[in-house]
Give the backbone structure.
Amino acid sequence: MSDRFLIKIIPPHGYSVYRLEVPRRHLYAALGVLAAMLLVVFGAVIRDVHHLRAVADDQRRRLAAVDRQAKSLDQTLRHIQRQNAEIRRIIGLAPAHPPASTLAAPRQLSYRGGFETVQLRLAVLDRLAGSVGVDESLLRAQALRAAAERRAQAQARARAIAAIPSLMPVEGPVVSGFGYRTYPDREFHDGLDIAANYGTPVEAAADGYVASAGWDGGYGIKVDIDHGNGYHTWYAHLEKALVHAGQVVTRSEVIGLVGASGFATGPHLHYQLMLDGRAVDPTPFLHGVPQNVIASIK
């Protein structure tokens, strides 16, 4: 067998014939080099494929993790929205209506995948977080305003209650009640007679201002306190008035001393409660404001 290969190259036109002799070992060597190069290239391609597959798997895991976090954040934001809606209901605000794009976007997520899904979800969450942030700022301002209004209402209510007669103006037994009596005269008694020693301090039954203080016929020395709500309290037969007309007084402030001035048979306080110019029984008002009166306060 010849150790050479003869290669003839004959052009399509012409009479020249080219001859190429290649030793067998050179040809085998060339084929070996070519095979080695193909193996190297193929190995590199296999490594690149494995690497790309690993990168793709890692990115898929990362995307899945981001997607789970996005779902968790979505649930958290929607929970905050529900809480905000409940706060709105409690403080009397109208419900918030999020933009239609914010509500519609989550339905599109099931039809998409990969980066597009995550990007869309994150865009939705960004809009949702923005709306929640704005809503929380508005709610904070509205809640502060509502709290201030309720605080003002509570203070006004407290002032209204403080201006309603609600205590025993002097310590002692009631010796003559409200209504008809036969002693010392047969008459309708417009107040309560409370027995007490001379000089015993008399206290204002509620907040108000002194409408008058001084001598008033059979009542003797009398203090009339206007409580600014239709109620007046009269304190009569005093030994001395300790306040003057126009003076502002507070509940339980001492306004005079028990005496027997005017038409009195002995030292006592005549305590009379007037409502819109008409005498009413003070008895329910001696130990606090009656519940039906409190219920009528707006």
In short: The chain has a mean pLDDT of 81. Residues 4-78 form one domain. The two ends are 125 Å apart (CA to CA).
